[in-house]
Write a structure and sequence with these properties.
two-stranded antiparallel ribbon, 504 residues, 21 helices, mainly alpha
């Protein structure tokens, strides 16, 4: 239902007569997305803690001749990404409604939600590839049709980059399936069965690189990020919320789900390379963000820096670090969605993204300033808010296994505080360089409806900062099993020592 309901609703929206689309499609999209949120929360409540395997599994033969099935399920890693997806979409639809061709916009958003849900829940490699690729189509149209002044070029750049990465994923996927078929006589795309494929070191390395290239572009991970500043800047508010909060997690989730499961030896082999790219991304993203005057591009580079933190936790290969990386995926999705929504609200009032053109808005928009401050503090990891817990676990795990990368990565915390607080000062304090930009009679503070959209995100940020245990207790068993699987694939006594360090 989580996958098919929004897909069916998108089809229904496309079939509604043109005369009724304007009044029917948007309410339909919001109703379906709210039902999705309820279903995801029910699934999370039913999820049993302390269990490392998949739960809620449904499996149907799709193309039996080629061993393709429609197999879905969730574990401790994917369950909260499904919940995050289900929460963000209705808030994006409610908080950033498009008035021009709103029915088409809502239909594309429904299709995108179905694709994201399918990607997070697929346990069949073919089903994952189909839904993973399907995210490209609605995102392309959302950016190109409802974006800003250079939206067409940004949409094409996004599509080409991600499509090329996915081509490598397709080649790697088919190679793995055929190798498994040659060894067992059984053609299958089932992840659990493919995990038992015997691969030489060279073959495993090449397959790892093919898979990871697609995931690195999607995340994005430095230096595969060059599409993201333009796409984030040109995308409409609802589109960039989904891009940053949900679709970026498809990349890091793919690394955990497929690289760690299928290529455990290569994960350790290329771990130092990915850790290096992660810390470069942390510092580079932070430095460029500090130099940006466009607030949306600043948040785009901030997102690059935060994704570097997540990769640092994942490839630290400690239980604390990987658990922190998964938790930070959720945290980043929440506060980044809120910040982009707030920037969208700000643009609706001021028609400006240039921070140097703004200034002194706190007196005219105290509620906006206060809520913006809350999410800025979560973003920079203030204790008591959600961002702190994830970053703390990542750095603790990194210090236990890859100390020097963690030391360098820690500088990102300081840089993050600099550019986020400086952005806040430029927008809400001081005086604007263009005093007449915002007429005095124009309201710039948040409306009640906009505040209500942000309330769930405020609650999540505070709740996860104060009491993250309910989520960590469900993440940890899956993370422990995944890290143990990677370490068990390493030859020699060093694997046991490394596992002990990760446990510590």
């Amino acid at each position: 239902m989580l996958v098919l309901l929004p897909a069916i609703a998108a089809l229904v929206a496309a079939l509604i007569p043109k005369s009724a689309r304007g009044k029917a499609v948007y309410p339909l999209a919001i109703a379906v997305s709210v039902v999705e949120a309820v279903l995801a929360i029910v699934l999370a409540v039913q999820f049993k803690p302390g269990v490392a395997g998949y739960q809620g599994v449904s499996s149907y033969n799709w193309i039996p001749t080629f061993g393709i099935s429609w197999r879905l399920g969730v574990d401790g890693i994917s369950i909260f990404l499904v919940v995050l997806t289900a929460i963000i979409f209705p808030l994006a639809l409610l908080g950033a409604r498009e008035r021009v061709n709103g029915h088409s916009f809502a239909a594309w958003m429904l299709l995108l939600e179905a694709a994201c849900m399918g990607s997070f829940a697929s346990l069949d490699l073919f089903a994952f590839f189909v839904t993973f690729e399907l995210t490209l189509i609605p995102t392309y149209f959302l950016i190109g049709s409802w974006g800003y002044e250079r939206s067409g070029a940004a949409a094409i750049k996004f599509f080409v980059y991600t499509f090329l990465g996915s081509a490598l994923l397709l080649v790697g996927m088919l190679a793995l399936v055929f190798i498994h078929d040659s060894q067992t006589g059984v053609m299958t795309f089932n992840i659990s069965q493919l995990a038992h494929t015997r691969l030489s070191s060279t073959t495993e390395d090449w397959l790892f690189l093919a898979f990871t290239a697609a995931f690195a572009v999607k995340a994005p991970i430095f230096p595969f990020h060059t599409w993201s500043p333009d796409a984030y800047r040109q995308a409409p508010t609802a589109g960039v919320v989904v891009l940053a909060a949900i679709m970026a997690k498809l990349g890091t989730y793919g690394i955990l789900r497929f690289d760690f499961t299928l290529f455990p030896r290569a994960v350790v082999t290329f771990g130092p390379l990915l850790l290096t790219l992660a810390v470069i991304g942390i510092i580079y993203g932070g430095v460029v963000a500090a130099a940006e005057s466009d607030i949306k591009r600043m948040l785009a580079y901030s997102s690059l820096s935060h994704m570097g933190f997540i990769v640092l936790g994942i490839f630290g290969l400690s239980r604390a670090g990987v658990a922190g990386g998964v938790l930070q995926m959720i945290n980043h999705g929440v506060y980044t969605a809120a910040l982009f929504l707030l920037v969208g609200y700000l643009f609706y009032s001021t028609h400006a993204f240039d921070m140097d053109s703004l200034g002194g808005l706190q007196s005219r928009a105290p509620v906006l300033a206060g809520i913006f401050t809350l999410f800025v503090m979560s973003s920079i990891g203030l204790p008591g808010l959600s961002g702190f817990v994830g970053e703390f676990l990542i750095l603790v795990g990194g210090f236990s296994t890859h100390r020097w990368w963690a030391v360098v990565g820690t500088s990102g915390v300081v840089i993050g505080a600099i550019y986020m607080l400086w952005a806040y000062q430029r927008v809400f304090h001081g005086t604007p360089k263009e005093p007449g930009l915002i007429p005095e009679e124009r309201a710039v503070d948040l409306k009640r409806s906009q505040i209500l959209v942000l309330v769930p995100l405020i609650v999540i940020v505070i709740a996860l900062g104060v009491y993250p245990r309910p989520i960590l207790s469900r993440i940890s068993p899956t993370v422990d099993a995944l890290v143990a699987h990677v370490q068990a694939a390493q030859p020699g006594p060093s694997a046991a020592a490394h596992t002990q360090a990760g446990r510590g």
